[in-house]
Known about the structure:
Strand content of chain A: 25-35%
CATH superfamily of the largest domain in chain B: P-loop containing nucleotide triphosphate hydrolases
Number of strands of chain A: 15
Radius of gyration of chain A: 27 Å
Order of helices and strands of chain A: HHHHHHHHHHEEEEEEHEEEEEEEEE
Number of helices of chain B: 10
Low-confidence stretches of chain B: none
CATH architecture of the largest domain in chain B: 3-Layer(aba) Sandwich
Distance between the termini of chain B: 35 Å
Helix content of chain A: 25-40%
Structural class of chain B: alpha/beta
Number of domains of chain B: 2
Order of helices and strands of chain B: EEEHEEHEHHHEHEHEEHEEEHEH
Distance between the termini of chain A: 67 Å
Helix content of chain B: 25-40%
Strand order of the largest sheet of chain A: 5-4-7-14-11-12
Strand order of the largest sheet of chain B: 6-7-8-3-9-10
Number of strands of chain B: 14
Shape of chain B: elongated
Strand content of chain B: 25-35%
CATH topology of the largest domain in chain B: Rossmann fold
Largest interface: A-B, 19 and 26 residues
Oligomer: heterodimer
Shape of chain A: globular
Mean pLDDT of chain A: 85
Mean pLDDT of chain B: 88
Amino acid sequence: MRQALHIFKKDVRHLWLEIAVTITVAAAFSFTGARRALWLADPATNRTAAWTMVLILLPLSWWTLIARAIHGETLLGDRQFWITRPYSWKSLLGAKVLFILAFVNLPMFLADIAILRANGLRPLGDALPGLLWSQVLLAIVFVLPIAALSALTGGFVQLILAILAPCVIALAVAIVVPEVVLGGFWGGSEWIRTYYVFLVLSVAAPAILVWQYATRRTPAARFLAVASAMLAVLGATLIPWSAAFKIQSWFSKESAEQSLAYVDFESSRSWLIRAVLERGDRVRVELPLSVTSLPRDMSAKPEGFSLQLEAPDGAKWQTSQVLMSYPSDMGQEFSLPVTVDGAFYRKVKDEPIRVRGSLYLTLFGNRQTARVPIGDQPVPVPHVGVCAASGGANPRSYFLGCRSAFRFPPVLVSYRFIQSTVEGAENVWISPQPRPISYSPFPAEPGIIPVSEDFTFSIPRVAPSEASVVTVEPLAYIQRNFEIDNLRLADFQRNAASVLP
Amino acid sequence: MTDMLRTIDLSKRFRKTVALDHLNMVVPEHSVYAFVGPNGAGKTTTIKILMNACQASEGVAQVFGHDSRKLCPGDFTEIGYVSENQQMPEWMTVEYFMNYLKPFYPHWDTARAAELLQQFELPHDRKIRNLSQGMRMKAALASSLAYRPRLIVLDEPFTGLDALVRDELIGGVLECAEGATILISSHDLSDVESFASHIGYLDHGHLQFSEEMRSMAERFREIEVTLASPSPSPISLPGAWLNAEQSAAVVRFVDSQFDEERTVAEVHRLFGKTHQISVNPMPLRAIFVTLAKAGRKAG
C-alpha cells in the first residue's frame, strides 16, 4: 500500500495539469447541470451550449487522464526504467486504480450529488442506490475499457488507433448492413442487451488489466481483448429478443398464471385484417388480436411476437419481431403488424393458411395518481422522482415535467392537466406523447447525466387548476400463444396507397 | 564461488531470426564479467531475458540461482541495471528521480546517493529530458549504485560517450561496486578489457568462449615457426591452431590451447626440423581479432 501511495503521489505531481483540467470540467458539469434545474422556470438560466460542450469534454478529459496515468508506466516493450526496479505489479495497478478513483470517480460522485440536489432529488436518500450504481457504471462504461486499451498500447497514437479501428469496422457494418446496427431496438428490455455487453466488459477489462500488469505479455492480452470485443458484439447481435424477454420475465413481480391473460384472434373484427403490399417486395399483414381475462385494474402492452405462417403444402414463413408500441396503444384490442416476404405471400395468398404465434406482453397495474399543483413547486412522485407544473414563460402555456435520478422511471407515466368547470366536473387533458420507460431492475442507467427529464406542455383555452402524474407499474412479463386457421390473405389484400397510415 | 547469473540452453527467436542459440553462460559471484561481441550478437537480448524484461523462446535464465521469470521486487532491490537504450522518466529532475526511487530500496544510502550526484557532477534540478547522453547514463548509474546492489548489470553503458565520461563511469562503478558482481556488455573490447576479470564472447547468438581473462591470456599465443626448408604445410592442423598462414619457410598461427611443451612437440611432429619457434603472448584485442577471423572462416 505504501508503494502504491508513493506511485500515486508521483502521478499526481506528473499529471497535475491533466488533473486540473478534469476537475475543472467536472466542476463545469456540476454547475451547468445544477443550473439546468432552473431553465424550465427561467429560460435565462439555460446554458445549453456549455452543457453540450461539457458532456463532450468530460469523457475526453477522463480518457486523457486515464491513458496518461497508465502510459506513465507503459506495459509494452522492454526499455522502461521501472521494469527493472522493485515495483510490485499489485502496487502499480493499485496506484492507477487509486488515481482513477480520486480524479475520475470522486469528482463525478460529488458533481452528481450537487446536480441531484439542485433538481430537488435526494442523493443521500431515495437516489442513493442510483448514485452508487452510477459509479459502477461509470467504471464499466468509461473507465475500464480505456484503461484496458491503455494497458495494451504504448502511447497516445497507438491508443487512438485502437479506438478508431473498431469504430471504423462498426461504421463499415452500419453502411453495409444497417439493420444489424439499427434494426433491433428492444424497447424497455434493451437493458438486457446493454448489461450483457457490460458483463463482458466488466469481466474482460479487469482480466486484461490484471494479466498485463502481472505478466506484461501483450500479445495474449490483445488476443483476449479482441476475443472479448467479438463476444460482446456477436452476443449483442445474435441474442434473440425472445430470449431477452424470457430473462425479463424473471423480474415479474406477480406470478404469471396461465389464467391471468389470454390472447385471441378477433374473428368478429375480420374487417380489420389487412395484407398491404409495400415497397421492397414486402407485405404487411395486420391481424386483430385481443387480450382477455385480465383483471380490471390491469392492462397489457404487447412487446413483441414470434409467428409462423403455414400453407397447406407445408410452406412456412417464420418471423420474430419487437413491437414499438406506446402507452397510447395499450389496451385489450390491437392490430399485430407482421412483415412477410413478397415471394412467400404470392405463393400462399390464395390458400387457407394457419397462423401460429406467441405474443409477449407486459402487464401493468398498481395505478397511482399524484396531484401536482401549478406553481413550480416540486412534488415527490413515487417511482418517478420529483414533478413540477408551471405556467411557463408564456402565460397561456403550461408545463408539467418530472425529473428522475439516473434513469427513466421504471413505471409508465402519463401526464394530465385538470380543468375545473363551473359545474364542478373536471376536464382532463392527457399528454399524447409516448413516455420513455425502462424495465431495468438496476437503479441507474449508463450515461453521464444524473437526472433524466421528461416534460409535456399544453396551451389550453381554460387555465388548468392543477396537474397530475399517473403511473402504472409493470407487474409481469408473460408469453401467450395463439392460433388462426384458414386465413386466406388474398381476401384482405390492399395497396399501400389505399390504406390510411 | 556461486553463480550470480546462469543461462542454460537459452534461445530466443524473433519470428525467423535466431537471436540466441542455446546459450550457456555463467557469471560467477564477485566477478566483473565482460560480455562482448559485435553489434547484433545477442548481448542485449540475453541481458533483457536475465532481467525478465523479455521472454526466452527456450531454455532457462537464472539470477541469484532462480528462474529470471520469477524475479520479484525483492530481487530487484539487489540488482542495479543500466542500459544505453533505457527509457527514463523524462519529466523528472535528477533530484526528484533519486528521491522517487529511494523508498523502493530498503538499503538506499542517502549519503552515497549525494556523493554519486556530486562525483558525476549531475545538476540536481535539471530534468532528465534535458540531460546529455553522458549525463543520462550517469544519472541512471547513480540511481543504480545508491543502494549497493549485489549485482550490477550494465548493457552497453559507454555507447556514444566520450573517453572522459567513460572513464568517469568506469571509475564510479569500480569505486562503488566493491564486493558486487558486475556484468557489463560492450561491442568494444577496449571499453572493458582494463578491468574485467572474466570475459564471454558472443557472436550470432553463440557463445564462442567464456572464461577468466587471466587464463585466456595464458591460453593464447602467437606462434611463428621457421622451417629448416620450405615445405607444403600439413594437410590438417590441430583445431586449436587458428588462422594459420605460411610464406616460404615461415608458418604463423595462433594456438588457442597453448602449453609450451605440448605445442612445441606438436610443431616438431607436424613440420619436422625447424630453425626457430618463437612464442609471443597476445594482447586481448589480437585474441579477439583472431577469434573473429576464425569464426568467419568456420562460418
